[in-house]
Amino acid sequence: MSAVRPSRRGVLTSAAVVGAAGIGAGVSAVASRPAAAGSPTASRTVPFHGTRQAGVTTPAQDSLVFAALDVTTKRAGDLADVLQRWSAAAATMTTGVPVGGPGGLGGAGDEPPQDTGEAHELPAANLTVTLGYGPSLFDERFGLADRRPAALEELPALPGEQLDPTKVGGDLCLQACADDPQVAFHAVRNLVRIGRGTVRVRWMQLGFGRTSTTSTTQSTPRNLMGFKDGTANLRAEDTADLEKFVWVGGQGAPAADQDWMRGGTYLVARRIRMLIESWDRASLGEQERVIGRAKESGAPLSGTQEFDALDLDKTVHGKPAIDVAAHVRLAAPDTNGGVKMLRRGYSYTDGLDVATGQLDAGLFFIVFGNDPHQQFVPVQRRLGTHDALTEYLKHTGSGIFACPPGVQRDGAWGEGLFI
Ligand SMILES: C=CC1=C(C)c2cc3[nH]c(cc4nc(cc5[nH]c(cc1n2)c(C)c5CCC(=O)O)C(CCC(=O)O)=C4C)c(C)c3C=C
Ligand SMILES: [Fe+2]
User: Distances from the Cα of 82 to the Cαs of 242, 254, 301, in angstroms?
Assistant: First the structure.
């Protein structure tokens, strides 16, 4: 019998998780169930309750299930009820326990069990569930028009995007992340089931590998272009920058214009298809010029080590070491008025695009910030116009959501708005 060796990424993540206990929406080392063999991180739990929602600064887990939903009722009370039931179910599932408690898979033989069952005996796998409200939730249906924060405005049309109308918007979003894809899927599936009759899924995206680092304890993963992604990201340990750029009303950030959003953040999601076949035909030199970093080491083309700072003024044989159209030059805070963001995206594939015979795969880009129209939007405008990477990308899905602050132990999602 061959022993199953934990993957290198798994080992690193495990160490990371232990080291990161207490950071941000802290990861607790309390195991709710025995860890599955060969799965060193799987028994870890991330507390659902706290001052911040989990799933923002939590060390990025391996898998994502993202769902945008529409509210199908006009009764605010029905939605409040679902949000309360969602809070209880999410709190339970994040400890590795079925919806409805330890007996949630059983019950009366003539009724469906409270829990669908596919995560039974799987560990909690660092499951986090993060809720967001879309701008459309603040239309006339629930009388919330004057409660919409100014920053929660629909994204404008952006250069070069080719959005699929079936992958845009949503009244609500649920971001479930876990180190086991079945645990993440189980969470969204059960919440959708609880919401039946009040909410319905508008669009959904599965992600299978993190493309960012959100803690100094994590190693840098690679995206589907084969490049290290997340090197220059904001991290849970960058507390002053998180206050300034991520948390609404944080120190050094603009004041919150709605009390219910203080301590929350905004999530922008972009489904970005990579034109993988073209990329794979590009030479190594061209790929590195386009990104502005070396493929193997991840070092900026102006340096030698992954974490060397970008030197945008350095020239080699009279030419900029980092090309004028390189992605990192055009995305860097130094060339964008100092703007920073917390990237927390995932690789995705939806198999074959039968219309073209090419792979439908790329990056499900998720970014958190306290003022997306001054952060994501201007940077993306610039990238969409000048970035050499744009030739290899197609933005096909999009959404913006306000993620309220965390839920206290005796509280529920929807507080300050519906409850
Ligand atoms: C609007 C913001 C951004 C989008 C959209 C975006 C898409 C995107 N990025 C990569 C690959 C890499 N990005 C890298 C760095 C990087 N990207 C952004 C912003 C967006 N990227 C920022 C702010 C940065 C950091 C720049 C800096 O300060 O140096 C890198 C380099 C490694 C890293 O620092 O993370 C890669 C690689 C892809 C493939 C992509 C769309 C599919
Ligand atoms: Fe990028």
Answer: 31, 32, 51
* DSSP-based three-state secondary structure for 185: helix
Separation CA 288–CA 115 (nearest Å) = 48
Q: Which of 225, 229, 347, 390 to mutate to test the pocket of ligand 1 (most atoms within 8 A of CB)?
A: 229
**Nearest-ligand number for the alpha carbon of 310:** 1
Q: Which residues line ligand 1 (CB under 6 A)?
A: 223, 225, 227-233, 270, 272, 274, 291, 293, 310, 327-328, 331-333, 341, 362-363, 365, 376, 379-380, 383, 393
Q: Judge whether 16 and 57 are in contact, CB under 8 Å.
A: no
pLDDT confidence of residue 399: 98
Query: Which residue is closest in CA terms to ligand 1's atom 11?
Result: 229
Could you give the C-alpha distances from 262 to 53, 196, 238, 275, in angstroms and in order? 12, 30, 19, 39
The answer to whether 134 touches 379, Cβ cutoff 8 Å, is: no
Pick the residue whose CA is nearest to atom 6 on ligand 1.
365
Q: What is the pLDDT of residue 104?
A: 85
DSSP symbol at 147: G
Are 336 and 382 a contacting pair, CB within 8 Å? yes
C-alpha 281 to ligand 2 mean position (Å): 20
Spell out, as residue ranges, where the chain has pLDDT lower than 50.
Answer: 1-42
Which of 289, 327, 339, 341 most suits a substitution to test ligand 1, by most atoms within 8 Å of the C-beta?
327
Handedness of CA 77, 370, 211, 215 (dihedral sign): negative
ipTM over the 0.95 cut-off = yes
Strand partners, 402: 133, 266
236-to-47, 259, 341 alpha-carbon distances in Å: 16, 24, 12
| Distance separating the N- and C-terminal Cα atoms of the chain | 56
Give the distance (Å) from ligand 2 centre to CA of residue 181: 24
Regarding pTM above 0.80, the answer is yes
Determine contact, residues 41/125, Cβ cutoff 8 Å. yes
Are the beta carbons of 363 and 230 closer than 8 angstroms?
A: no
- Provide the β-strand partners of residue 313: none
Closest-CA residue, ligand 1 atom 32, reads 229
From residue 149, alpha-carbon distances to 51, 142, 154 in Å are: 19, 15, 12
